[in-house]
Amino acid sequence: MIEFDRVSKRYPGGYEALMDVSLNIAAGEMVFLTGHSGAGKSTLIKLIAAIERPTGGTVLVNRQNVGKMRRGAIPYLRRNIGLIFQDHKLLFDRNVMHNVLLPLQIAGFARHDAAARARAALDKVGLLQREKANPVTLSGGEQQRLCIARAIVSRPALLLADEPTSNLDSEYASEIMVMFKAFHQAGTTIVISTHDYAAIVAGNARVIRLDHGSLQT
Amino acid sequence: MMNGLTNHHQALDATFRQLVRTPLASLFTLFAIGVTLSLPAGLYVLLENLTQIAAKLPVHAEITLFMRDDANAGDIQSLRNQLRTVPGVKNIQFVSKQDALSSLSAQMGLSTMAGELAANPLPDAWIVAPDTSDPGRLKQLTDRLRTLQGVAQIQADQQWTERLHALLALGADMLAALALILAAALVSISGNTIRLQILTRHAEIEVSRLIGATDGFIRRPFLYFGAIQGLFGGLVAWGVISLGILLLTPQIAILALLYASPFRLQTLSLGDGLVLLAAAAALGWLGAYLAVGRALAQIEKSR
Q1: Nearest CA among A110, A72, A101 for reference residue B214
Q2: Domain ranges, ordered by start, for chain B
Q3: Contact at 8 Å (CB) between A41 and A211?
Q4: Of A190, A216, A187, which Cα lies nearest the Cα of A205?
Q5: Angle at CA A78, nearest 5°, toward A92 and A74?
Q6: Nearest Cβ partner for A106 among B4, B206, B212
Q7: Which residues have CB under 8 Å from B198's CB, separation 6+?
Q8: CA dihedral sign, ordered A51, A54, A59, A64
């Protein structure tokens, strides 16, 4: 599903975030991406979602060269990817329900359909009782679960999670890992960047290790 | 499952909610747009009224035809017949050389002049009243009259109408220039309110882009907002003009009465008003489009 062929990313200013990275992630696989901070985990995830473009090599997602994708096509790529952010990126000017509805509105779902799907997604992360609440009133763990609900509501084939548990205490963190495992068992391809070793051990999945922008084997 | 109308409905909804959420700021902006629009639209109404007055003015233009010295009674009769067939001639009046001389001497108080001159130096003449005051058609008419048999010289007194029409044309040019400048002002007013909105909704735009929103989806609510704000501003302008006309009408009626004229001040017609609203909406939309385009480009760069 995801193929990196000799991918490099150099940011303006000269910082080399990734150097000569080649890797394959099969459809339905769950992969942990690990390494010290600044090792290039976030950059790798951004390259998959076409948030950044590589400065060398090719990034293929579903056999599409996302590094060379034209701007107008990128939104349609992203609708098939669920993005989960370390800082949640929730919108505090609307309630929990409307945060989850946003991807469906963007994709043009009819109102009734969208509401049913959003409730299902909130149910999966255990936030159905809080649908009217403002996200600012949620705890850190709940906010992260809301972010996950928003990522899965359009049932993407690929979930990308950038440090989803790093701001959470271990109890919340393991809860979230259990959710990811459930999605994986439902057939979703999942890439999780983390330096939470407990999670990796519990996850029992393939680990990709980055060190200063290079792949460690 | 796909429903394009839902998006438009949501965008429209968001616009009205935004307007109501900041009522004072919205009112100020609408007022600014309205006043900006009412200047060129008001000038337009003024010009329309002046043009109407100009068209209703009694036609003062007069064309004088002088015949050759050797013209005899036959020539006079033949020219009379020719003049009757020329289109655009409303009235003709023959002034014989004897009449001209006697009226001239009467004017100058020289009752004996006619008797003292060996021969009458004045030619026979025609005074032609055209049925138009339009400079272009007058020019055509004089050119036509000049070619008639027996005509030696033509004097057309049309300076006054030429000046009036030149003034009206100048007014129309000034209106065009003013409209252009204020259209630019309107685009920037609209762009500026949209820019402020974009600042407050920066997070929403960024998140929307990350989860698959097209530029069109992000633009849509702002474009709606710009167009609707412009439309309301246009309504304010329409109101300002109508109110202005209403306030002026009593004085104009008195003035018209003093001049024994049936003139009545015309307000903006329905068609012109709709054009005003459409232009206002279009300019508001354009301002929004430019502002969002800039914001999208900046978000792209800042990443």
Answers
A1: A72
A2: 9-56+163-302, 62-157
A3: no
A4: A190
A5: 115
A6: B212
A7: B205, B222, B291, B292, B295
A8: positive
| A207/A41 Cα distance (integer angstroms) | 12
- Contact assessment for residue A126 and residue A145, using Cβ atoms and an 8 Å cutoff: yes
Q: Predicted confidence band at B1 (pLDDT cuts at 50, 70, 90)? A: very low
Count CB neighbours of A130 within 10 A: 18
C-alpha to C-alpha distance for A126 and A128, rounded to whole angstroms: 6
| Alpha-carbon distance values, A8 to A70, A215, B14 (Å) | 19, 11, 42
| CATH number of this structure's domain B62-157 | 3.30.70.3040
Q: Hey, what long-range contacts does A13-16 have (CB within 8 A, 24 or more apart)? A: A16/A213
Nearest to A78 among B1, B206, B211 (CB): B211
d(CA A18, CA A10): 7
Instruction: Quote the mean pLDDT of chain B.
Output: 83
Which residue in chain A is spatially nearest to B204 when comparing CA positions?
Answer: A91
pLDDT in tens, A26-82: 999 999 999 888 888 999 999 999 999 999 999 999 999 998 998 889 999 999 999
CA distance B49 to B248: 13
Residue indicated by tokens 């579903």: A62
Burial class (CB in 10 A: 0-12, 13-18, 19+), A180: buried
Cβ distance of A102 and B207 shorter than 8 Å = yes
With CA atoms as reference, the chain B residue closest to A94 would be B204
Contact list in A for residue B218 (CB cut-off 8 A) is none
C-alpha B246/C-alpha B265 separation (Å) is 9
Identify whether the C-beta of residue A187 lies closer than 8 Å to the C-beta of residue A1: no
CA distances from B72 to A145, B103, B117 (A): 112, 21, 20
Burial of residue A187 (CB within 10 Å: 0-12, 13-18, 19+) is exposed
Measured CA to CA, the distance from residue B41 to residue B33 in angstroms comes to: 12
The answer regarding whether domain A2-216 maps to CATH 3.20.20.80 reads no
Mean pLDDT of chain A: 90
Helix axes A96-107, B4-21, angle to 10 degrees: 140
CA atoms of A162 and A45, how far apart (whole Å)? 7
Q: How far is residue A50's CA from residue A160's CA, in Å, rounded to a whole number?
A: 12
**Subunit contact B206:A89, Cβ cutoff 8 A:** yes
Nearest to A54 by CA among A40, A42, A68: A68
